[in-house]
Amino acid sequence: MRGLKWITVMPQVAVWHVRIQEVIEFDQEFRCRCGDTSFPFTCRYNGKPPTYLLQPNIQFARKIHLLKLTTGISVAGIGMLICFGIWYTQYRKSFYKCLRLINGKTEDQSLEALLKQYGSLAPRRYSYWEIKKMTHGFKDKLGEGGYGVVYKGELSDGRAVAVKILKASKGDGEEFINEVASISQTSHVNVVSLLGYCLDGRNKALIYDFMLNGSLEKYIYGDVSLLGLHRLYQIAVGIAEGLEYLHRGCNKRILHFDTKPHSILLDEEFCPKISDFGLAKLCTRKESTVSMLGARGTIGFIAPEVISRTFGQVSHKSDVYSHGMMVLEMVGGRKNVKEEVSHTSKIYFPYWAYQHIRPWPDDDLKLHGIISKEEEETARKMILVGLWCIQTDPAQRPSMSKVIDMLEGSLILEISPKPLLCTPYCSGRHSLTTHRQYH
């Protein structure tokens, strides 16, 4: 520090004419900031101006140096992260584009190998261009849901069809393959017919017979039934016969796992057709139970054992439960769980129906739309069958063949045990994660 020169400008203030920019007096101590060096100096006034002791603050200087070093490293690190982010984004786009091509090829090969065994009975494969032509450029939309969009189309022979354009799905296309494979081996009046499919790159579509009257869901909810109880009864029997065919009439047992009003299509004569096989599972007819990684189906129609294995093993009895819940909604003209009701006892319709059908078998059920004694007996029979189908214990539920006998038979049915409230709407004990919900 040799050679520094000081001048006194005023008492108790020292300023160096070249290097010291500012001197601040505080309790007989001067803090000097020098413009041409990173070293701060402490100028101590010993009471005898203009003599000062100039001392470098080495510790503070090290902090400044460390701060600069840290700042430089941080800026460099942030720059590297930004560059890596840009590179990773471009890499991921390329990777997934390649992966989609590989998966598409794998899915294509899996489906082709599966359909080979059906020979001439396999559904026809269409290109995406043919699908677009068939639907007249996707002009007439019939409906839309979680699965995708349904358009009305027309085959070259003038036959009306419904074309379901599927949304892009995750995984290996299991749901698409399930639907094609399941329906391809069926032939029943109460199961929808698959006329063809499209697997063209990422584009997937299913071609069905056109159902003039749409889904059952449109007709069963409301104070006044649009179909009448007798026709609803016939529809319930038809659905039961379709499920019985899937369980026992095919080369492989088909478990639907998504039976609900929206999955039932009605033709021009209101004959029911079971559709939406995306969640179905195929197994041998000898297998009494099936294994599943997670729950699948639609809330309100899922059997308790599908949600939690503590209720029992998953089997064809799970479809029986779904059918029972649907029959109860058909005869009740409402959702089985409904919060907007006049009395809390009516929130869960199966429980309300059980309470009213058990003590007074000859009393009026007071259901909307019932105007005759015959309809009263039909409603009572449908309720009793529905209550047996929704028993919590799968072993207590009837098979679908037994359900048909109960619906069509003339014998007086016994009253089932009291149904438990195991629906995911209200049960907090067993949470639900559906595999995928179709609308």
Automatic annotation (TrEMBL):
Cellular localisation: Membrane
GO molecular function term, any single one: protein serine/threonine kinase activity
Keywords in alphabetical order: ATP-binding, Glycoprotein, Kinase, Membrane, Nucleotide-binding, Serine/threonine-protein kinase, Signal, Transferase, Transmembrane, Transmembrane helix
Domain of life, per lineage: Eukaryota
Pfam families listed in its UniProt record: PK_Tyr_Ser-Thr
One GO CC term, this protein: membrane
SUPFAM superfamilies on file: Protein kinase-like (PK-like) (SSF56112)
InterPro entries for this protein: Kinase-like_dom_sf (IPR011009), LRK10/LRL21-25-like (IPR045874), Prot_kinase_dom (IPR000719), Protein_kinase_ATP_BS (IPR017441), Ser-Thr/Tyr_kinase_cat_dom (IPR001245)
TM segment ranges: 66-88
Topological type in the membrane: Single-pass type I membrane protein
Binding site for ATP: K164
Occurrences of domain Protein kinase (ranges): 136-421
PANTHER family, per database record: RUST RESISTANCE KINASE LR10-RELATED (PTHR27009)
Name of the molecule in the record: Receptor-like protein kinase
